[in-house]
Write a structure and sequence with these properties.
Layout: E1 4-7, H1 11-23, E2 27-33, H2 40-44, E3 47-52, H3 63-73, E4 77-79, H4 89-98, E5 101-102, H5 107-114, H6 116-125, E6 133-134, H7 141-151, E7 155-163, E8 166-171, H8 177-192, E9 197-201, E10 207-215, E11 221-233, E12 236-242, H9 249-265, E13 270-278, E14 284-290, H10 297-304, H11 308-316, E15 333-340, E16 342-343, E17 349-350, E18 353-354, E19 357-359, E20 367-371, E21 378-379, E22 386-394, H12 397-410, E23 412-414, H13 420-428, H14 430-433, H15 441-444, H16 446-449, H17 458-482, E24 503-510, E25 513-522, E26 525-530, E27 533-541, E28 546-551, E29 554-563, E30 566-571, E31 574-581, E32 596-598, E33 603-608, E34 615-616, E35 621-627, E36 630-635, E37 640-645, E38 652-653, E39 658-664
Parallel strand pairs: 1-2, 1-4, 2-3, 4-5
Antiparallel strand pairs: 6-9, 7-8, 7-9, 10-11, 10-13, 11-12, 12-15, 13-14, 15-22, 16-17, 18-21, 19-23, 20-22, 24-25, 24-31, 25-26, 26-27, 27-28, 28-29, 29-30, 30-31, 32-39, 33-35, 33-38, 34-37, 35-36, 37-39
């Protein structure tokens, strides 16, 4: 077994590998960019080596720097994690040349599966079922369009070197093909440095089912059952589970055999995943093989009781697989939800900023949290905005669903937008809870998953006001303790007035709503009045924002986190972001020129679609911004005229920068 390994990755997966290595007594080396100097994976590792600036092309994707770091620290092996160089055959070859073990498959297997089109040919020869499509080398756009027309719409354009949901476009009619092909190729070049694409028939209501395979250097290969990853948005997985609902033993055996045949066809060693697209009738087709550990591997670990990273390390060191196929068993059901810094109500737009408050549910036999960040860390625009993976397990699917809902209700994140409330709705959605699964579930359940905004519950205003009052009282008490005269009445925040009762107003805003809470001080608490409804309120607030509330005798727990003027209220499994309005502070109508369109996040302008001076209709695309390796189209907010672009193609823009001078049609 290795004494020391280097992890050529960052964030959650680097922390995950370090955890297993530490348990096995293996020392770890982290690599980091300048932006990650204080990252959690750097803090956790035994050693860490700086490899370059924030941009991945100058740090995490520079093979020579990573090999150099391994040699410098004496690491005997390199774990690539997922993403970055994990499926890069040049990196695997460089490890071999340097005499460093690559904790993954051999170069030949990565090469065989690195191109989706080449992989299809190999799988076809091995007898693995294939989806109808075009996988050829001729990339002439007109030829690709003719092939798509011949296959029949809808079709899916996929980057041959793609993964992680990037470099994919769904085309529903012929006239849209060339525009979407161009967009797909641009994203493929940006993400993978290769614009080669393939075209496949897009199945109606398909399920995405993948099989975890594992091979060793002695020629043994097993499958560790399946995961259902059907719930996706923009081809990126959101919720994963194991085993797949409705899977029969016969179908599982057939898919497992196909996956093992696929792995053996390329001489596979280590952890890999064979992904299938499956019809509702049970037929299935090979999509691709990921020659690495998957993001969703924890659900397999939870139902098998195995540590797949440990298996990787043992196999890479030359040991045989720890178990044979007949020794593997499924126990219970597991779900994984990806907690992201993003805004589902704004098209899942990524969010950046400091994690001002981060409180995950407690980990135990049923709940696991894999994360690469801690409270106070930054979600940077340079990398994937994942906060954590939340994994739950129980004896059956219904109980696992209940566990997930409870764990999501206990998750507290403040400082960045996040998808926790969306994930709660998704888990509770009748289609998902009833296992009516397909890759279009989120789209077809929009009405349930994106409900119209309702008025903020009165209880939220009351809780926010009580927290504000208790925070003031706590500050006064703390100041008294530090003062030479701790009993001075000037420290008190009890609203005392001579021959009068003290009253005041607190004003909060939530979106377009603004609410005034009338406060009357009492000897043992407060009377809070909202819209003419009064309650007697008291409570206790700690320095983490945890609030023990009593409203007219009803007791409950909540959390209220204060950050500048923002008040993040967490109650009954939901979250609200309020603003504390200071009536003495005048706020103008907003920054920027009237009619200006602002960048929703830092990024790079990659295309100007409209022309300056052009009259456009509402919703017309104006420009394309690339951020976090994803394209974001900026559309016209109303009918009007494009007066001027503030940036050109290739320019970097900051969050809130004015992109377009736009004149709304009168």
């Amino acid at each position: 077994m290795f004494d020391k390994i280097l992890i050529a990755n960052r964030g959650e997966i680097a922390c995950r590998v370090i955890k297993t290595a530490r348990r096995m007594g293996i020392k770890t080396v982290a690599v980091y960019s300048e932006a990650d100097a204080n990252a959690r994976h750097v803090r956790m590792a035994d050693e860490a080596v700086l490899i370059g600036p924030a941009a991945v092309k100058e740090s995490y994707l520079v093979i020579d720097k990573i090999i150099g770091a391994a040699k410098q620290t004496g690491a005997q092996a390199i774990h690539p994690g997922y993403g970055f160089l994990s499926e890069n055959e040049d990196f695997c070859h460089a490890c071999d040349e340097a005499g460093i073990v690559f904790i993954g498959p051999p170069v030949a297997a990565i090469h065989a599966m690195g191109s989706k089109s080449e992989a299809k040919k190999i799988m076809g020869a091995a007898g693995v079922p294939l989806t109808p499509g075009y996988h050829g080398d001729d990339q002439d756009p007109d030829l690709l369009k003719r092939e798509a027309d011949g296959i029949g719409y809808p079709v899916l354009i996929k980057a041959a070197a793609g993964g992680g949901g990037k470099g994919m476009r769904l085309v529903e009619k012929s006239e849209d093909f060339l525009d979407l092909l161009g967009s797909c190729k641009r994203e493929a070049i940006s993400s993978f440095g290769d614009e080669h694409v393939l075209i496949e028939k897009y199945l109606t209501r398909p399920r995405h089912i993948e099989i975890q395979v594992f091979g060793d250097t002695q020629g043994n290969c097993v499958y560790l059952f399946e995961r259902d990853c059907s719930v996706q948005r923009r081809h990126q997985k959101v919720l994963e589970e194991a085993p797949a609902p409705g899977m029969t033993p016969e179908r599982r055996a057939a898919m497992g055999k196909a996956a093992v045949d696929a792995a053996k066809a390329v001489g596979y060693v280590g952890a890999g995943t064979v992904e299938f697209i499956a019809n509702q009738d049970g037929t299935f087709y090979f999509m691709e093989m990921n020659t690495r550990l998957q993001v969703e591997h924890p659900v397999t670990e939870m139902i098998t009781g195995l540590d797949l990273v440990e298996w990787q390390l043992r196999v890479a060191s030359g040991e045989p697989l720890p178990l044979a196929q007949e020794q593997l068993q499924i126990r219970g059901h597991a779900l994984e939800a990806r907690i992201y810094a993003e805004d589902p109500d704004k098209g899942f737009l990524p969010s950046t900023g400091k994690l001002l408050h981060l409180s995950p549910p407690a980990e135990n036999l049923h709940v696991r949290v894999d994360t690469g960040v801690e409270e106070g860390d930054e979600i940077s625009p340079h990398y994937d905005p994942m906060i954590a993976k939340l994994i739950v397990w129980d004896q059956n699917r219904d109980r696992a669903l209940a566990r997930m809902l409870q764990a999501l209700a206990e998750y507290r994140v403040a400082g960045v937008s996040n998808n926790i409330s969306f994930l709660s709705r998704l888990t509770a959605c009748p289609a998902f809870s009833g296992a009516d699964l397909d890759t279009g579930l989120i789209e077809r359940e929009k009405a349930y998953l994106f409900p119209e905004a309702k008025a903020t519950p009165i209880e939220v205003w009351q809780v926010a006001a009580l927290a504000e009052l208790l925070r003031e009282a706590n500050r006064g008490a703390a100041k008294a303790r530090r003062d030479e005269d701790p009993l001075s009445p000037w420290h008190a925040r009890d609203g005392w007035r001579l021959n009068a009762s003290a009253k005041r107003d607190l004003i909060f805003r939530h979106g377009e709503e603004q609410q005034t809470v009338n406060v009357a001080y009492r000897a043992d608490g407060y009377t809070l009045t909202v819209n003419g409804q009064s309650v007697e309120a008291r409570g206790e607030l700690n320095d983490r924002g945890l609030l023990r509330v009593e409203l007219d005798g009803m007791r409950m727990d909540a959390t209220v986190v204060a950050a500048n003027e923002k008040r993040h209220v967490f109650s009954h499994g939901r979250a609200w972001q309020l603003s504390n309005v200071d009536p003495l502070h005048y706020s103008g109508e907003g920054g920027g020129a009237e009619g200006g369109l602002l960048a929703p996040m830092p990024g790079k302008v990659i295309s100007l679609i409209a022309a300056e001076g052009a009259a456009v209709e509402k919703g017309a695309p104006l420009l394309i911004l690339e951020a976090m390796k994803m394209e974001h189209t900026i559309n016209a907010p109303a009918a009007g005229t494009v007066k001027a672009f503030r940036f050109m193609v290739g320019d970097q823009v900051g969050d809130g920068d004015e992109l377009v001078e736009f004149e709304v049609k009168a």
